[in-house]
Amino acid sequence: MARLLADRPTDMLTIGDMARQLGHSHGAVRNAALTLVRRGEADQSGTGQPEFRANAKTAAAAQTAVISPPGTHAPRAQAATATPATATPRQTGPIRRAGGQLYHPRELADLPDVEALNRLRDADVPVLLYGPPGTGKTSLVEAAFPDLLTVAGDGDTTVGDLIGEYTQADAGGYVFQYGPLVTAMTEGRALLIDDATLISPKVLAALYPAMDGRRQIQVKAHKGETIKAEPGFYVVAGHNPGVHGAVLTEALASRFSVQIQIGTDYDLALALRIDARVVRVARHLAHQVELGELGWAPQLRELLSYQKTEAVLGTKAALANLVGIAPVEDRGAVADAVTKAVGIKKIAPLTLGKQLPSSAARQPPGSAGSAHRGRSR
Fold first, then answer.
1. Which among 185, 164, 187, 161 is positioned nearest to 174, based on CA atoms?
2. Cα separation, 304 vs 105, whole angstroms
3. pTM of the complete model
4. Which of 330, 251, 300, 280 is nearest to 131 (CA)?
5. Whether 33 contacts 15, CB under 8 Å
6. Of 154, 243, 140, 265, nearest to 203 (Cα)?
7. Closest by CA position to 252, among listed 216, 199, 214, 215
8. CA-CA distance, 318 to 312, in Å (whole number)?
9. Do 13 and 7 meet the contact criterion of CB atoms below 8 Å apart?
10. Contact 314/279 with Cβ under 8 angstroms?
11. pLDDT (0 to 100) of residue 17
């Protein structure tokens, strides 16, 4: 890959350009290109259809084989030589996601979770991740699969959102714009269907032929075109059981051979130096949720938000905000738990107070401004 870019230093090459010249799948080429970019040995521009070009370090990189970090290989292409379950895990430390945030791997089946997901991808075993919002389901998938495409599901998601639809071109005509499912299939990439159980079962049915032995779909809206999945194509889905309207149908559940529960790692929250009192409150509330006594508890996302709010507005405001983001029906219980933990008499949701006086009205008597106004009279 580096040698190809180095030989054409002035050209901007797409994934398709390089795949045709190298004779490898789109997924494998994309993973190699992204590895070079992360190492600073190539430059990237664009996102939807990224292009790559050599930089000052590319020629040197071409002299040495690049070993991709976990999750950046072309999994199905390597399925025949998949790492045995007893082998030493490849990655245990923090992983930097595409947006720059760090992900801290957790244990799953005696492996780092990112390693386990990659092995499941190697074997083409679809995975359903389920748990409350904010527990890190999306973060885990992003850390495991740098080539990820995501569909954010809701009740309004259509077949067109998955497969594609006609859109008006600048010239005035209509062109067919492929959706993320088709892109993932043709480029051999991973596809996350987030909040899959909020999507209509009739819409999700369009996904199933791509996941079974056929590994292809028919785009009826575009001349009945048949799209076949390239090696590396993989589907993972997210499910939030407590979200209103989320329904895990038998048809959907049966497509995902492995289903993994995701909860908040409160030990990680402590390691990230989030206020231990607040983490203790979150643990207590989470236990009440498990017992069915409560419907909500702060997850890692809310705890990280608390930490950031505290750094900006102070502890009292951060605690008030933590109470305020709880659902109305659980807010009283959350407020009581926080009050007992931190020893503050009363904590109410973060609320605007009285209007502040103007700067002139705030000047103390005898100041230069008031003396000047006195002389002018």
1. 164
2. 17
3. 0.68
4. 300
5. yes
6. 154
7. 199
8. 9
9. no
10. no
11. 77
Residue ranges of the chain whose pLDDT lies below 50: 47-48, 65-89, 376-377
Q: Report the pLDDT value the prediction gives residue 82, as an integer from 0 to 100.
A: 42
Q: In terms of C-beta density within 10 A (0-12 exposed, 13-18 middle, 19 or more buried), how is residue 178 classed?
A: middle
Which value, to the nearest 10 degrees, does the dihedral of the CA atoms of residues 25, 205, 238, 214 take?
Answer: -30
Cα-Cα end-to-end distance for the chain:
81
DSSP 39-78: TTSSEEE-SSS-EEE--TTHHHHTTS---PPTT-S-GGGG
Among the listed residues 5, 314, 42, 265, the one whose alpha carbon sits nearest the alpha carbon of residue 132 = 265
H/E segment holding residue 178: strand 174-178
Residue 319, exposed/middle/buried by CB under 10 A (0-12, 13-18, 19+)? buried
Determine the 3-state secondary structure of 320 from DSSP.
Answer: helix
| Residues 149, 180 contacting (CB under 8 angstroms) | yes
pLDDT number for residue 28: 61
The contacts of residue 223 (CB under 8 Å, 6+ apart) are none
Report DSSP state, residue 194. E
Give residue for tokens 């006086």: 357
Q: Specify whether the CB–CB gap between 79 and 33 falls below 8 A.
A: no
Structure tokens, 330: 């659980």
Closest CA to 72 of 125, 148, 165: 148
